[in-house]
UniProtKB/TrEMBL annotation:
Belongs to the plant acyltransferase family. GO terms for molecular function: acyltransferase activity, transferring groups other than amino-acyl groups. It comes from the Eukaryota. Keywords: Transferase. This is Malate O-hydroxycinnamoyl transferase. InterPro entries: CAT-like_dom_sf (IPR023213), Plant_Fungal_Acyltransferase (IPR050317). It comes from Trifolium pratense (Red clover). Gene3D superfamilies: Chloramphenicol acetyltransferase-like domain. Pfam families: Transferase (PF02458).
Length: 454
């Protein structure tokens, strides 16, 4: 059992700019959602001082990342659209101090579950969203001084994963007593992606990522699939297994498209995951399936965005196929479909997608499309479809607050949709961990194909 001992409201150490911060269309679709992640740390002889270190350093880093201390509010200019802005009121972030009666070993591999859920801050979504903190962090000490967990609930309205990780690592650097370099300071002006709205009756792209997803053949809606329970598990791929998957995919590429760049880690693993999902479900060969994922637009948009751009700079993209071709054709064929989705994401596609998002009557509707929720009106992203997120390029294990690097990092929620998060393992040997969220009825078959088909 976890007990919350203390709750602290941490505000910036110095006065920060006041007023309203414009949120982009990319930010709008993530406003009512916190991303739950967890960092696990080994025991340290100076562990008694962790909470004070975190409080003091958080107060310092919020001077630079002052939007995190603000609150969301409705725009006065576009009331009817439900557009949201950031009120820079320095209300602060929340830091919880907790302890558990369990040892570090009682949590197993820390895969997302009801057990690990207690290490993550609970966000009360029933409160007025204007009062909701955008960052809540829970420090939980394990029994017998066996280390601690840092559970982070970070509002997606603030930034994508790239920005969130840079914030956490900068916070950790301050906690270690170091100073941020100029190029480590966040770039906060989101108007770099404020484009004039030029709606078109015919979008410039098909935008299958924004269209209704395929239903299981013979079904009229997703109600039956929504009722099915999903669970989460961690699947590890060694460096050799990753290289084997890449070689398997690239053998097809060398035969069909000579001179093309080799498939990336994401393209090969993403294709493998989509195939495993399609095989495990036992669907008909002519069943359509869509796989959705995101691409970072910082270097894909013209002009490019600063690398320290602190906001949501992701474009949703997707690719589709029939189960028969996904499961029977070579892995490289499926990886090529993944590549087609990522290669779409260029300047004109990004701006066209923003046009489509802005064409929604209310931003609430766009939010449901991107995130989904538990209502019948929101899209269901599970069977026969799939989602993949690649976090392999993010330096999670640099989050050393002065007590050593984390021994584990991972996504901490259990998704109601079928999806996977790909991260590097803490071993630093090129192996990866896949956090898989999948319908319980098909999970064992998925795991079987996941390793047999490498």
């Amino acid at each position: 059992m976890v007990t919350i001992k203390n709750s602290y409201t941490v505000i910036p150490e110095e006065p920060t700019p006041q007023g309203r911060l414009w949120l982009s269309d990319k930010d709008q679709v993530a406003t009512q959602h916190h991303t739950p992640t967890i960092y696990i740390y080994k025991p340290n002889q100076n562990q008694e001082n962790v909470i004070e270190t975190l409080k003091n350093s958080l107060s310092k880093i919020l001077v630079h990342y002052y939007p995190i201390a603000g609150r969301l509010c409705y725009s006065d200019e576009e009331v009817d659209s439900c557009r949201v802005e950031l009120n820079l009121n320095a209300k602060g972030a929340i830091l919880l101090e907790a302890e558990t009666t369990k040892t570090i070993h009682d949590y197993g591999d820390f895969s997302p579950s009801d057990l690990t859920k207690e290490l993550i801050p609970i966000i009360d979504y029933n409160q007025p969203f204007q009062e909701m903190p955008l960052l809540v962090v829970q420090l939980t000490s394990f029994k017998n001084n066996q280390g601690f967990a840092l559970g982070v609930a970070f509002s997606h309205s603030l930034s994508d994963g790239t920005g969130a990780v840079k914030f956490i690592n900068s916070w950790a650097k301050i906690a270690r007593g170091e100073t941020l370099e100029p190029n480590e300071l966040p770039f906060l002006d989101r108007t770099l992606i404020k484009f004039s709205h030029t709606p078109s009756k015919v979008p410039r792209f098909e935008h299958i990522e924004l269209k209704p997803l395929p239903l299981i053949i013979g079904r009229k809606d997703t109600s039956e699939e929504r009722k099915k329970k999903t669970t989460a598990t961690l699947l590890k791929l060694s460096y050799d297994q990753v290289e084997k998957l890449k070689k398997k995919a690239n053998d097809f590429l060398s035969m069909k498209k000579k001179g093309s760049r080799p498939f990336s880690k994401f393209e090969a693993i993403g294709a493998h995951l989509w195939r495993c999902a399609s095989k495990a479900r036992g669907l008909e060969d002519d069943q359509e399936s869509v796989v959705r994922f995101h691409a970072d637009i910082r270097r894909r948009i013209n002009p490019p965005l600063p690398q320290n751009f602190f906001a949501n700079a992701l474009a949703l993209t997707a690719t589709k196929g029939c189960v028969g071709e996904i499961t029977s054709k070579p892995l490289g064929y499926v990886a090529q479909k993944i590549r087609e989705g990522t290669e779409l994401v260029k300047d004109d596609f990004i701006k066209s997608q923003i046009d489509v998002i802005r064409s929604f009557r209310k931003m609430d509707d766009a939010m449901k499309l991107f995130l989904g929720d538990e209502t019948e009106k929101a899209p269901y992203f599970g069977n026969p479809n799939f989602q993949v997120a690649s976090w392999t390029g993010m330096p999670f294990y640099e989050a050393d607050f002065g007590y050593g690097k984390p021994i584990y990092f991972g996504y901490a929620g259990v998704s109601p949709h079928d999806r996977a998060y790909i991260t590097l393992s803490p071993d630093g040997d090129g192996s990866v961990i896949v956090s898989l969220h999948f319908q319980m009825a098909h999970l064992e078959l998925f795991k079987k194909y996941f390793y047999e088909d490498i």
